[in-house]
Amino acid sequence: MTTGEPLIVLDSVNKWFGPLHVLDDVSLSVGRGEVVVVIGPSGSGKSTLCRTINRLEPINSGTITFDGQPLPAEGKALAKLRSEVGMVFQSFNLFAHKTILENVTLGPVKVRKEKPAAVRERALALLDRVGIANQADKFPAQLSGGQQQRAAIARALAMQPKAMLFDEPTSALDPEMVGEVLEVMTSLASEGMTMVVVTHEMGFARHAANRVIFMADGQLVEDAPPAEFFANPRSARAKDFLSKILTH
Amino acid sequence: MNVLIDKFDVFAGGFWLTLQICLLAAIGALLLGAVVAVLRISPVPPLRAVGTAYVNIFRNMPLTVVMFFAAFGLPALGSNADFLRLPGLDAVFNRLGTDLPYFRFALIALVLYTAAFVCEALRSGVNAVPPGQAEAARSLGLTFSQNLRHVVLPQSWKASVVPLGSVIIAMIKNSALAGFFGVVGDLAQTADQLTSAEGFAFVPVAIGISIGYLIMTVPLGALLDRIEKRQAVAR
User: Fold this and answer.
1) Which CATH number does the domain housing residue B118 bear?
2) Cβ contacts of residue A155 below 8 Å, gap of 6+?
3) CA-CA distances (angstroms) from residue B148 to A83, B44, B53, B189?
4) Which residues are registered as beta bridge partners of A70?
5) Using CB atoms, which residue from B43, B135, B142 is nearest to A110?
6) Shortest CB distance from A93 goes to which of B132, B143, B155?
7) Are A197 and A29 in contact (CB under 8 A)?
8) CB contacts, 8 Å: B139 with chain A
């Protein structure tokens, strides 16, 4: 899977929220085409880790490199970098005043200055791909959670990103809608998209991930292929976590 | 109560002048307030500081004092507020027959004062937009101004329109002060003229000018209620 130099590199990243050390000397590299799933108890810093990669959360020390370039400071260069990194949020965050189609076309038209007609075509193809082509002219509030999240994935893909970040994409969904979102994510993974996925879906971690990262208390505790991690967690912290979630 | 009928033309003239001041001041205050609001939410700290300083000064100073500064401070600095003689605006002033510096001074004071409140009403609307909306826009690579224009402001409008209306209603009533700073012939100064100079009883005159203000403010309030109801349906 991994070829050439890694796409995302975090080196000794530290971040504090006031006195709380949310990221404690985290180093991680994600290769091109790799799917990395980040798991861990809540408050372990996994969402924060995900959000530092496109600098939605600035860091206090350390370096983050994307595609060979260190993350720029706030401004035009950062906006350009963000346009190359798709992001999917727990709460979908579709633009509430725009239709699904407008949600998907806004980025390419305004950020990339692409021709609206061409973007529209691509957007419709993406909506078809995630299975909601017939919802294109509705507003987000008229869709189910699962449909909204799939629209959000289409919106991120419309920018033709080099990598996709998923911040607990199924945590706000009713159980019967989790599957349809994971299906889209699995097909993306199998097509070679570079993905960092923060999730509690152990099934997805098992079958779609190349690597599983286990975080606790802001530290990156384990980094292993899923089969190895689930069969044989090395740290007591990971064993404890897995025993709690896998007994149900 | 005969004064209301006998002096109807005086009341009507006062109403007309007050309406002109209010229309022009409302346009100015909405424009300036929007600029200050953008400054206050800008990601650039010095711009934010300028916006915050503006609001702190003009929101916390009595309008009377702002009027004093405009009507006495500007002439002391050698200005007749001629900078307001912009091509289009100047034609409006001339047409209205109100090409007097005091009209401009009152306008400046009302605009400066009201803009601070307009800024805060707009900003409360921006704050009512869930932060995830702006975050999603940033994650797509939209710049600050694109984010405001395409994502945040269109949604903030809903939450700002009612407080904004209250600010403009307050401004219409505040315009009554202009009559005491040299503007001749607006509603408030009409009352003063009729009672002190011409000896009419105060209460009927006060009723007359109240009606004048109510004609402007009540429909505006009703309009706001309608907009609010329509939004409640749309939501």
Assistant:
1) 1.10.3720.10
2) A94, A103, A104, A106, A107, B140
3) 17, 15, 22, 42
4) A65
5) B142
6) B132
7) no
8) 54, 56, 82, 85-87, 156
User: What tokens does B163 get?
Assistant: 């407080």
Give the integer Cα–Cα distance in Å for B203 and B195: 9
Distance from CA of A235 to the nearest CA of B (A): 35
Q: Which two tokens stand for residue A126?
A: 């993406």
ipTM of the complex: 0.91
- Tell me how many domains chain B contains: 1
Dihedrals φ, ψ of A192, to 5°?
95, 15
Whether B220 and B48 have beta carbons less than 8 Å apart is answered as no
- The pLDDT value given to residue A248: 60
Q: Does the beta-carbon distance from B135 to A93 stay under 8 Å?
A: yes
| Alpha helix positions (H), A70-137 | 76-83, 100-110, 116-129
Stretches in chain A below the pLDDT threshold 50: 1-2
Q: What is the pLDDT of residues B192-219, one digit of tens each?
A: 888 888 888 888 888 888 998 999 999 9
Q: What does the block give as tokens for A129?
A: 């791909």
Candidates B140, B147, B148, B231: best to mutate against A (most CBs of A within 10 A) is B140
- Say if strands A8-17 and A61-66 run parallel, antiparallel, or are unpaired: antiparallel
The one-letter amino acid code at B217 reads: T
Within 8 A by CB and 6+ apart from A169, the residues are: A88, A89, A90, A149, A153, A181, A185, A197, A199
User: Do the strands A8-17 and A20-30 form a parallel or antiparallel pair, or are they unpaired?
Assistant: antiparallel
3-class DSSP state of B171:
helix
Domain ranges, residue B120? 3-234
Note the pLDDT tens digit of each residue in A31-52.
Answer: 999 999 999 998 899 999 999 9
Q: What are phi and psi of A194, to 5 degrees?
A: -75, 125
